[in-house]
Automatic annotation (TrEMBL):
Residues binding L-homoserine, per UniProt: 192
Organism, scientific name: Intrasporangium calvum (strain ATCC 23552 / DSM 43043 / JCM 3097 / NBRC 12989 / NCIMB 10167 / NRRL B-3866 / 7 KIP)
PROSITE patterns noted in UniProt: ACT, HOMOSER_DHGENASE
Protein name: Homoserine dehydrogenase
Residues bound to NADP(+): 12-19
Taxonomic path: Bacteria, Bacillati, Actinomycetota, Actinomycetes, Micrococcales
EC number: 1.1.1.3
Keywords: Amino-acid biosynthesis, Methionine biosynthesis, NADP, Oxidoreductase, Sodium, Threonine biosynthesis
Length: 441
């Protein structure tokens, strides 16, 4: 082991992630020192309440402090795992101003105000690393930032929120409704007491913004991301997907085309044969497509104290090595500055399930609505609605009813959603059962 002076580490937050980081740093200090080339010495752990019993972390009780502002001024390396915007942002900026490199897991902050933090890191000549912020343990940001730095990334497509994947998986495999599945996720500790950030897609949108920024060398913030959560996904949607041999997943999609970049988070049907369909429970997986590399897939645990601590510790070792050996990791790269496309310009495909009157001319009226918006239909399947399946087989005008399932070719999202609006107003359409985007065919 090196005789070098210890590097002073300040830990901000001792919750799920911070607790796991503290335990590893304490129990495996010898390995960490050998890998870094200098000991990593915890000089303080900022907590909200000082008096609590935290003996299970195995750290000296005198290290806990409620004065995070003071703590960050006497550290070489600061790990921020408090979460949220403030005081996390001010503490990170203060730490950098005092010369500390920073490791954070805070996707919400990076998606809201990343450029300000990157600028501060550059100004003060320190590192800002955040592998844990997207897809937890999965090494994903480092590959994008470093391994693929010489390639052209075209698309990043993935499942980046464990809670919603768990909920959708349970809806698919057990037929559970949305609310039941959320309660199961809460009972297992995946979903928080207030699961809004997960189920409304805010968490995935923040991660999509970070991924797109790195992939396309362009500043993308959380508010640039089109976002739909899973609260509107019904058992009928999941059943419609099953009929198509598909599953519903909440996807983060970052695409680059000639016009710019499109970044979106929404539920979509994907074929059961697609590798993302096999991502079960609270796991995450991300596909990256690059010109020279072709397709790459990253899979693993995106949440939980231990998996997230793995990514935090990897970053901590990396920035500590820079302190020992000199130099800095790559900073923000936003030189490409590509325009960000609106959702209407995104190229998507729709699956639409309609209840229609079963009489002559209905199909042509439906087809005309698609044609009017220049949307090409790929497949149409029709089945009669039986009188005994819970709906009345006779329509209001005495005609029989049928279920029409239509899958489109790719078109702009604006054209597709305008088509659905037209369908809703057709007299032959009795009801729109399910509308969902389709990916991965
Ligand atoms: N838990 C995960 O699976 C996971 C995965 C990836 C990223 N993250 C990110 O990691 C960060 C931490 O998440 P977590 O799950 O550990 O949250 P947590 O709520 O378990 O822990 C946060 C801790 O910070 C403390 N805290 C809040 N304000 C503080 C302050 N001003 N000073 C000192 N302590 C303060 C809280 O009391 C709490 O103990 C968040 O940014 C989160 O998005 C978490
Ligand atoms: N709430 C997040 C934690 C990891 O960021 C999830 O469910 O994926
Ligand atoms: Na990661």
């Amino acid at each position: 082991m090196s005789a070098r002076e210890p590097l002073r580490v300040a830990l901000l937050g001792a919750g799920v992630v911070g607790g796991a980081v503290a335990r590893h740093l304490t129990q495996r200090s010898g390995d960490m020192a050998a890998r870094v080339g200098a000991p990593l010495e915890i000089v303080g752990i900022a907590v909200r309440r000082a008096g609590r019993d935290r003996s299970e972390l195995g750290v000296d009780a005198s290290l806990f402090t409620t004065d995070a502002e003071e703590l960050v001024t006497r550290a070489d390396l600061v790990v921020e795992v408090i979460g949220g915007i403030e005081p996390a942002r001010s503490l990170i900026l203060r730490a950098m101003a005092h010369g500390a490199s920073v490791v954070t897991a805070n996707k919400a902050l990076l998606a809201e105000d990343g450029p300000r933090l990157y600028a501060a890191a550059a100004q003060h000549g320190v590192d800002l690393y955040y592998e844990a912020a997207v897809a937890g343990a999965i090494p994903l940001l480092r590959p994008l930032r470093e391994s693929l730095a010489g390639d052209e990334v075209r698309k990043v497509l993935g499942i980046v929120n464990g809670t919603t994947n768990y909920v959708l998986d349970k809806m698919d495999t057990t037929g559970a409704g949305f609310q039941d599945a959320v309660e199961q996720a809460q009972a297992l500790g995946y979903a928080e007491a207030d699961p809004t950030a997960d189920v409304e897609g805010f968490d995935a949108a923040a991660k999509a913004a970070i991924l797109a920024s790195l992939a396309f060398h362009t500043r993308v913030s959380g508010s640039d991301v089109y976002r739909e959560g899973i609260t509107e996904v019904s058992a009928a949607d999941v059943a419609a997907a099953r009929e198509m041999d598909c599953v519903v997943k909440l996807l983060a999609i970052c695409e680059r085309n000639d016009g710019g970049v499109s970044v979106r988070v929404h539920p979509a049907m994907i074929p059961r044969s697609h590798p993302l369909a096999g991502v079960r429970e609270a796991f995450n997986a991300v596909f990256v497509e690059a010109d020279a590399a072709g397709q790459l897939m990253f899979y693993g645990r995106g949440a939980g104290g231990e998996p997230t601590a793995s990514a935090v510790l990897g970053d901590l070792v990396a920035v500590a090595r820079h302190r020992v050996g000199g130099g800095l990791g790559p900073g923000e790269s936003s030189y490409a500055d590509l325009p960000i496309l609106s959702m209407g310009d995104a190229q998507t495909r729709y699956h639409v399930s309609l209840d229609v009157a079963d009489r002559p001319g209905v199909l042509s009226k439906v087809a005309a609505a698609f044609a009017a918006h220049d949307v090409s239909i790929e497949t149409v399947r029709q089945q009669l609605v039986a009188a005994d399946d819970g709906v009345t087989a006779a329509g209001g005008d005495g005609s029989a009813r049928a279920n029409l399932i239509i899958v489109t070719h790719t078109a702009s999202d604006a054209a597709l959603s305008a088509t659905v609006e037209s369908l809703r107003s057709l007299d032959v359409v009795r009801g729109v059962n399910s509308v969902m985007r389709v990916e991965g065919f």
